[in-house]
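Technical note accompanying the year-one report. For the benefit of new consortium partners, we illustrate the data format agreed upon in the data management plan: each record pairs a sequence with a structure-token string. No post-processing was applied to the example shown here.
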Amino acid sequence: MLWYQTPSGRWEDGLPIGNGRLAAMVVNETDRDRIQMNHEWLWRGVSRDRDNEYAADRLPEVRSCLEKGDFRTATELANRYFAGKGGISGVKGRVDPYQTAGELVFVPERGRFLERSLDLDTAVAYCVRDMGCGGECVGREGTVRDVSGREGTSGESIGRLMSKAAVSCVDNFLMLRYRGDGMRFSGRLFYTRVEDGEAVTRVQYTENRICFQCAFEKGQSYRVEAVYASDGNIFADGDGITIKDAGYLDLFLNIGVEHKGIEEELERYPLPAGTYDAEVLFGRQEERFSGMMKRTSVEVSAPEVLLPTDERIRRMRRGGKDNGLLLLYYHYGKYLLMCSSVCGELPANLQGKWNDLIQPPWDCDYHFNINLEMNYWAAEQNDMGECAEALLQLCERFVPHARKAARDLYGCRGIYFPLQADCWGRSTPESYGWAVWIGAAAWIAQHFWMHYRYSNDRAFLRERAYPFFREVAEFYEDYLVLDGKGEYRILPSQSPENRFEGTGDFPVSIGISAAMDVQLCFDVLGYAIESAQLLGEDPQRREKWKEIRAHLPGFQIGSDGRLLEWDREAEEVEPGHRHFSHLYGLYPSDIFNPETRPAQYEAAKKSLEFRLGQGGGHTGWSRAWSACLQARCGNGEAFYEHYAALVKDFATDSLLDLCGDIFQIDGNLGAVAAVNEALFGCWNGKVRLLQALPEEWRAEGRVKNVKIMGGHTLSFAWKDGKVTDLSLHKGAEEPVVLVYDGAEHIY
């Protein structure tokens, strides 16, 4: 549980709740509560039908420059033809910004903030306010218990205003309940949205309903419906609702967006009408959410710390140790993924599903060159396949336009995904300076492969995963260039988002066969080959893919022993770059490991050490990737250092991850994958228990019901760094190899 005795100082310090379709940030300020709301499909909608200009006939010109070694000209031309107009061009890109739906505000007539909390098991946010006496309080001294169950001492005879909020994953609407504890209360209620010069809004109040409507100029529209009930006196006017002498106030809110059909969506998830029991509605939300959260668990030995969460963070920043807080951060990441995805049709974006701005950083979009993938690295391991489904559905929604984009931009069959995108499934590059990259679809293919490997669902492989792999493989068949030495080269190619000297002022260099592009191509062809073999399909294509894969550029090592990031040694403009793109083959892939490619594995480790030594890992998501990489390498103390830094250096008071001073959820979600990798990482077909167990966690711990490749479920415990008991529930007919206590064990 997150727990605070200080009010929210800013939106980023609020408490997030959600179910995937709807989300809300509960901001408990000194004198009021703000419930800021989002809907997963509430993107502005101005560029829903955008398309690419035909540019495939320009590809030979760019390739000619690259062949001659003129990378400066190639970079400039490639961006002119294939990168859209956003980014450093000075022109606003066409990626639609994710929007806030507005916020419900309740202002109590009087009162003093006491505490707020968020129960991660039930997804319920609580707040308690001391309302004082003044004739309305019912005297009651001694021990009191707040709505979250925590006990405290009342001291003087006081009254308290208790509130709780949740977004139901059963009924699919937001629930908010205020209750006077030993008192009756009064206050003011209204709905508002940040000023927006390109939107028309209207709000209506009646004695039992609020209706807020908004239409974006040249975009979509939406409506927020709220119903409420109270045993107090209700007065509605043009500016809001006044509540007098209430013992309770219940509110239920929902949102309908044009894309889903406003009326249809609101009718699909009807708000309570007539007789209802709010505690029953909260109870079934809590039961279902708790069941999903508790499917898997990780425990480590940690003393109980009876301090508010923000004070615990400050103690860690001053050098203190707090294993309980680090464990809380792990479960918070699971919580955020669940709240971003479980009832959703869209995956978590850069901020999950939480945003309070009309022009959020990076449009609060989908970045396919690390951030979106990182969001879902841990989904399968933590038995959250229904959350991964939101990601897979988004990618399948892109396929029709991705085929057209592959033809229009590069003259290729198959599919092309852009570096960044929104919810509309349009494969258009929009970030001039960064966007000449063709590896996004191949990276996303890994998630289709992992969904199959962790579920062993052969129908999914046949009907959804293999068709996706085949589309990506077809693109590479046409895009790769066979040179005179019999090598299939990738050009243009880039290493997101890095550059080398000699390519001008562009933030990313365009070159030939960047390491990450080669690794991605190698992996997706492998998925296609293995899937076709399992399904008994496409024997001729299979042979072609094998031939291409066997003749891709080698995974090269530089003269200093580091893994090369590009196809040749080049001077890095920023040696401590935040991206570790060329280390994809170390993690999340396992191309480089000490059993099959020991030389590249050592070179990758050296590259990681060098980049971190030059200041790499200086954003939250980058530090999460660092923790994953260190865990994959078996470096327990380094893993712990980077993981702990996410809390000490890259977290708000509500433990939300930061990129600079901007909330970005990928660090929270990537941290879950890092812990999983340290405790039960898998590479080269073997599950490695406690491969990066830090000394701080060595005493004892337990992992329950996690998923491993092959559709198996694993539980184990340890004491003094040794596995003490183990349970394996086999889900597929294949041997399982577990490595622990210095030996391999085959089940």
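Partners are asked to follow this layout when depositing records. The first helix runs from residue 59 to 67.
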